[in-house]
Design goal:
The protein is of the alpha+beta class. The chain is 45% helix and 24% strand.
């Protein structure tokens, strides 16, 4: 069995989370970056807001739209968690045991932090 490098795992996680966003949320991110640190995956997504979400935020001048967006996205991530976990497990080779999420209505950035049951098996980095 060929082990993936850390960079290959991070790229596969980016693809998996992008797929989740597109298939489950209805819109993929403009940019996505993943960073693996021991058994934790930090995923940063940019450009995730749909046109309807942008209108919701703009239409509620009192900040209520931003709060509604956060609640909606949190509920959607919770409801889609089995799909997200399956995609990440396949990409990283380790099962997620917790998922944390936040979104910025101001910048359209989203952050997902996953704790894995164990660090994914990967090739050692080559020393320079």
């Amino acid at each position: 069995m060929d082990l993936k490098s850390q960079g290959e795992i991070e790229a596969a996680v980016c693809d998996a989370v992008s797929r989740f966003q597109l298939e489950y949320m209805g819109r993929g991110p403009n940019r996505v970056h993943a960073h693996l640190v021991e058994n934790r995956l930090f995923v940063h997504l940019q450009g995730v807001l749909t046109a309807a979400e942008q209108r919701l935020i703009a239409g509620q001048g009192n900040g209520r739209g931003a709060e509604l967006l956060r609640q909606l996205r949190s509920h959607l991530v919770l409801a889609g968690r089995p799909m997200l976990e399956s995609l990440v497990r396949d990409a990283a080779g380790a099962a997620p045991i917790s998922v944390h999420h936040d979104i910025s209505p101001t910048t359209g950035e989203e952050v997902i932090v996953l704790t894995l049951a164990a660090p994914p098996p990967c090739r050692d980095r080559k020393r320079r």
